[in-house]
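All the exercises in this workshop are built on plain-text protein records. A record pairs a protein's sequence with a compact description of its fold. Read left to right, the backbone structure tokens trace the chain's path through space. Once this layout is familiar, the rest of the handout is easier to follow. Here is such a record, shown just as it appears in the course material:
>
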Amino acid sequence: MTGVNSFQVSGYGPERAGWTRIFARDSVARRLDWPLLLSASALSLIGSLLVFSATRNRTELNQGDQYSFLVRHLLNTGIGLALMVGTVWLGHRTLRTAVPILYGVSVFLILLVLTPLGSTINGAHSWIKLPGGFSLQPSEFVKVTIILGMAMLLATRVDAGDRQYPDHRTVVQALGLAAVPMLIVMLMPDLGSVMVMVIIVLGVLLASGASNRWVFGLIGAGTVGAIAVWQLGVLDDYQIARFAAFANPSLDPAGVGYNTNQARIAIGSGGLTGAGLFHGSQTTGQFVPEQQTDFVFTVAGEELGFVGAGFIIVLLGVVLWRACRIARETSDLYGTIVAAGIVAWLAFQTFENIGMTLGIMPVTGLPLPFVSYGGSSMFAVWIAVGLLQSIRAQRPMSA
């Protein structure tokens, strides 16, 4: 069988579809990155305990059922795992052919947010209300489609052997693809999601091998754009207030600075080992707003202490380490770009979420990946894990 790829010989190439690709002996299941999968699963399970602690006494949220958020978080995790399995089953190369459809659907959904179907939660008009009390945040899925769309454009001619690096025209096309949903999300306005998308674009360009002039040019354009957004009054009052509180932590501690002040108190009171799960006074006393979503890390800091919070950071670090390794070891540029875009996304969102609870970053409403309560975010990050697993599973055996 000389000259035949060992991956194709094994019978599990990208052209073969079916559950046997995942579960059969010596199949894709044996190619999965288990440290990545186990770390992400552990984060979601730890998150379920933190969400339960943050919501069990909040009757205005749980409607008298202290287990409601716990059950929904576990349900979201289960659906996320199913989406991961489905993504691996389809394969990132199959999804590559479906990028135009996925991109069109994601843009359509974020446009719906700007219609009467959209709803406002915590000041951000970025949600679509669904029957049964559920909500969908389309901007979470846009992060995935931007990564896939830019990777498809930037890698096509390189993987075909026509070029060594993406040319300027291809970079312009990729930037245009990313700019459309980013502008729509900015109109919501959802500044936190836009910040993540900007970092994704930079990470994708760096991984693609495009000229560094594009990266430096985008950084400069982003700086000018941020100043223009501030001066032209594009941001809502609550967003301006958040940045003001970040710049001056002592500003209005009972008002705009309340969240971050209470978050620091909660984390600081945990000490080395914490007050014990379900025994944090700040959490039990309901002093930290949105503690099950944006500020879930404060529950870990108060009740699990430095050790428990540090363990969460280590697990997140393992996820990023394995993703970086997958990006480095894949044999095609498309897989490298997809993995690198996911690394940029998860790394920045993790830093921003933990940073805002510590007061070193402004409050932007970004959830902590795998840990915070929220269906859309949970589904998106598990799809990202599925993409990473597919990239690893579909590489040649010798890689």
Remarks:
- The CA atoms of residues 360 and 388 lie 30 Å apart.
- The two ends are 18 Å apart (CA to CA).
